[in-house]
Amino acid sequence: MKKTIAAIIAATMIAGGSLLAFASGGDSGIKKNDDGSTYSMLCYLAEFLNDIFGTNYAESDYIAYWEFDGIFADDIYKEVNFENVQNHETEDTNPWKIVAISLWSDLPELRCANIENNIEYINESFNNCPKLLNVFVPKSVKKIVNSFQNSNCTIYGVPGSYAESYAQQNGIPFANGVEVTINRVGVAFDQPAFIKDNRTVVPMRKIFEKLGATINWDENTQTITATKGSTTISLQIGSNILKKNNTEIVLDVPAFIQNDRTLVPIRAISESLGATVNWDEENQTVSITQ
């Protein structure tokens, strides 16, 4: 069975651009980007997973995991998203299965992280991250080993999940959270998405930027205005009216401020900008397509 480059996965950051890592059977080590910076390879290591997590993967399985080698322990890592597989090129029909995160620790500027619903294991990650505020851990995670130590963060996840029990057993704050994906790519928020009055709310600026809109904030009137193409929408803090061009839309949840962040209802905002929104109740996931 020939294994060629099987997946391209990007970890997105506030600063420093995107880190590209490639998964290839039996290959590991440090490679260079065009600009001379380095990145670590995703590793095909069924044995590692079996030893650490007690799994039973065979060498023929398509296995890959994110591994942080310490080279990037500087100011660029403020926000990271562990994304799904974007594409694969193999002679087989089976894609790589991205299942684990390992050794993502000692990041002094990391503030938030989002782990998507394909990840099943977390090993020695999110330790010694003094500025880490929150990590969204999905329902898919089955086991966490030696992680979230010396980091005063909150784990956000699905009630009744393994993440919740791990947090409780280790004295880590846990809160109900919602995963948000845009075009199948997860979004990491410094204030995680959550449900208020049966509606998912998210930080205003991040969602507008991810949807490709430019935004303006009027401090005097407490009004948000966003423009994308020929569409302009505006809403005022505390008001349940969203204006889209010349049309008024009644919101179930008005925009509000919490922890110095302006939060807005994600469905109303996304649909007003022409996107399609789907809700996965079981996995507490909002999927946006545009």
Short account of what is shown:
By secondary structure, this protein is mainly β.
Kindly list the characteristics that best describe this protein.
290 residues; 4 helices; 26 strands; disordered N terminus
Question: Would you mind describing this structure in some detail?
Answer:
There is one protein chain. This protein has 290 residues and is mostly beta strands. The chain folds into 2 domains: 7-177, no CATH class; 195-289, Copper amine oxidase-like, N-terminal domain (Copper Amine Oxidase, Chain A, domain 1), CATH 3.30.457.10. It has helices spanning 46-53, 162-169, 204-210, 266-272, and strands at residues 7-12, 18-23, 30-32, 38-40, 63-67, 79-82, 97-102, 112-115, 121-123, 134-136, 143-145, 154-157, 174-176, 179-182, 185-186, 194-196, 199-203, 214-218, 223-228, 231-236, 241-244, 247-250, 256-258, 261-265, 276-280, 285-289. Strands 6-8-10-12-13 form a 5-stranded parallel sheet, with helices on one face. Strands 18-19-20-21-22 form a 5-stranded antiparallel sheet, covered by helices on one side. Strands 5-7-9-11 form a 4-stranded parallel sheet, sandwiched between helices. Mean pLDDT is 76; it is low at 1-33, 37-43, 70-75 and 84-95.
